[in-house]
Each structure stands twice: as C-alpha cells, then as structure tokens.
Amino acid sequence: AEQDFNPNNLRIVRIVKPLRIFKLLRIMKATKIIILLDKLESIIRPPPVSTRIVRLLMSILLIVHICACLYWLVKLVFTNDLEMVDFLDEHALPAGSNEPLWERYLLAMYFISTIFTTVGFGDISAVNTAERAYVMLMMYLGTLVFGTLLSEIQNAVSQLRRLVRSRGRLVQQIKDFLRENEVPASLE
Hints:
Layout: H1 10-16, H2 23-28, H3 30-44, H4 48-78, H5 81-90, H6 101-116, H7 129-180
Helix pairs in contact: 4-6, 4-7
C-alpha cells in the first residue's frame, strides 16, 4: 500500500483546500448588491457621473478580488509546504490551518492591487514558474483595467464639463430672455 502512495496525489487536496476562499464570493451576492445600489440610486438621485464612477470602482474591486483569489490558488497549488511556510513567516502570517483566512486574503488583495496600480513595491513577488506566468497575465490585465479606469474617468469629467457648459448656456439664455422682455430685476 505504501508503494502506491505518491506525494503528487496531495496536490488534489491542495487544489480543493484553497477553494474555500471562494466562499467570499457568497458575501458579495452581486445581484442583491446591484438591486440595493439601484434602490439607493433612485432615492438619492446622484449625478450620473458619480454613479458611473462608483460602478466602475466596484467593478474594478470585483476584478481585483477574483484575481487575488486566483493568485492565492496558484500559490497554494504550485508552492511546496516548506516554501509556503517561509512565505507566510516572511509576511508575518501564521502557518497553521486555523489562522484567519482574511489575513491571507488581504495579502493577496494587496499584491494584486500593487500590480494593477503599477506601483509594485517588490515586497511580494512570484517565486515559481506558475506564479510568474500568472503575475505576467495580471500585469497585462492590470494595464487594461488601469487604462479603462483612466479612460472612464476622463469621459466622466468630459461629460461633467459638457453639462456645466450646457447649464451655463441655459442660464444665460434665461437671463437674455428676461432682459429682452424687460422683466424687472427684482423678479430675476
């Protein structure tokens, strides 16, 4: 029976174990959040520009969340136990199975955020081929997300400027109308 044991078979267990992090997706319950945001939007009636930016930031947060979860999955699957213990120790995280998952999640979110924002502090880096490949993909995805963010913000600012100019023209037309029709200044 010992001859049939292969340490590589433990990789299956290591693949299934990190899937627990996807329980965080249940917290989001995206459809309920979207419905709640729509109700809140109808009550508050914020300017369309601010609604657009909030939705964009929430979308980016969701993308970063998914990428962080996938990064941790790659880390768990392709890093041996000793390297994982060293990695956790290096980042002051407990190495047991009873540790709070949120600390590891926060570390993964931090790492992916440094990639997406192009900051890249260098305090966390890819240590094996699978991680390097994944991080390279995240760099390209981060570039797209960052570019999209800048483009959307620029579009929102342009739209806001157009609205301000349009409002200014409308106010000027009203003033001109009131003057042409000799409406007393006290009524203006």
